[in-house]
Amino acid sequence: MSEQNEEQFEEITSEEVDRVVAQLENLIETTNSENIRSYLEEAMNEIYYLVYEEEAEEAMGEEEWDTEIEACAEDDEDVSEAA
């Protein structure tokens, strides 16, 4: 049973996340549509937090972290520069 659980999880490296986020940033810069740009920014943020969520939680208090997530969602803030 534990062998099956191990197969369900994959390790994602920060190098891969950084590379994908950088490529999405370049794509966002060349995209004219606000709607598409919004989806790309959302995807970029989700990918960024795959690796950096735990580090961000440790750096901030839990309450501050919840506030930061809400602010990012409202402002469509580009979190890739925070790394």
Protein model, in words:
By secondary structure, the protein is mainly α. The protein has one domain. Helices cover 76% and strands 0% of the residues. α2 (14-29) packs antiparallel against α3 (34-59). The protein is globular and about 35 Å long. The mean pLDDT is 77.
List the helices and strands and how they pair.
Blueprint (H helix, E strand, L loop, with lengths): L1 H7 L5 H16 L4 H26 L2 H14 L8
Helix pairs in contact: 2-3
Throw out a few tags for this protein:
4 helices, 0% strand, 83 residues, mainly alpha
What does this entry show, briefly?
With 83 residues, this protein is mainly alpha-helical. It is 76% helix and 0% strand. The longest helix has 26 residues, at 34-59.
Which stretches are low in confidence, meaning pLDDT under 50 for 5 or more residues running? none
The string of secondary-structure elements, in order, is HHHH
What structural category do the secondary elements indicate?
A: mainly alpha
User: What composes the largest sheet?
Assistant: none
Give the overall pLDDT as a whole number.
77
Radius of gyration: 15 Å
Name the helicity range: over 70%
User: How large is the share of residues in beta strands?
Assistant: under 5%
Question: How many structural domains?
Answer: 1
Q: In one word, what is the shape? A: globular
* Secondary structure: number of strands: 0
Oligomer: single chain
N- and C-termini, Cα separation: 37 Å
- Our count of helices gives 4
